[in-house]
Amino acid sequence: MLDQFRGVSLVAATIAMGLAAGLYYAYACSVMLGLGKADDRTFVEGMQKINVAILNGWFFLTFAGALLLTAVAAVLHFRGDGGRAAFAWIVAALVLYVVVLIVTMGFNVPLNDRLEAAGDPARIADLAAVRENFEAAWVRWNIVRTLACTAAFGCLTWALVLYGRSGS
User: Fold this and answer.
1) In the chain, pLDDT over 90 holds for what percent of residues?
2) Count of Cβ atoms closer than 10 Å to residue 37 Cβ
3) In sequence order, what DSSP letters do the residues of the chain get, joined into one string?
């Protein structure tokens, strides 16, 4: 029974991590590139609306689920022959995802909050300055979390391979 929980937790963690990595990647290779070509008002208004829209249950399920499911998988794989080979890779994924959380909460969210505090784009006197104080830093930190989350996804994928090879 424990082996089933190990396998299910690892698959669920890998799926959640893959969804999170895909989200950050989509921002890096499409959303921010598209908004980067827009005028200042469209950029600021677009990001403000995106930052409100993303705060939904599906996002939180993935955002928190990647952390919680990976932690559960680590605990379940800590002991026992069936999960031991995968344990180090699960822990590596967990550490990498903690980096994602630190970057998100320490850099991207405060930038989002400052952008929102700038107010209604129709009333902002210097949209170019608001954008300049946001865009490059936000994109840079998003790339950091994209790389860390993708690496975490890779670690969990490899952990699945090792778990499968262990015959569990």
Assistant:
1) 91
2) 8
3) -HHHHHHHHHHHHHHHHHHHHHHHHHIIIIIHHHHHTS-HHHHHHHHHHHHHHT-SHHHHHHHHHHHHHHHHHHHHHHSSTTTHHHHHHHHHHHHHHHHHHHHIIIIIHHHHHHHHHT--GGG-S-HHHHHHTTHHHHHHHHHHHHHHHHHHHHHHHHHHHHHHHTT-
Token duo for residue 18: 């893959």
pLDDT category of residue 123 using cuts at 50, 70 and 90? very high
Summarize pLDDT for 29-88 with one digit per residue, the tens.
Answer: 999 999 999 999 999 999 999 999 999 999 999 999 999 999 999 999 997 665 678 999
The answer to whether residue 168 scores a pLDDT higher than 70 is no
Q: Residue with structure tokens 């008002």?
A: 41
Q: How far is CA 16 from CA 53, 93, 118, 142, 161, in A?
A: 20, 12, 33, 18, 17
Q: What residues have CB less than 8 Å from 6, skipping those under 6 apart?
A: 73, 76, 77, 80, 82, 83, 163, 168
Average predicted confidence (pLDDT) for the chain: 95
What are the structural domain ranges in the chain?
2-165
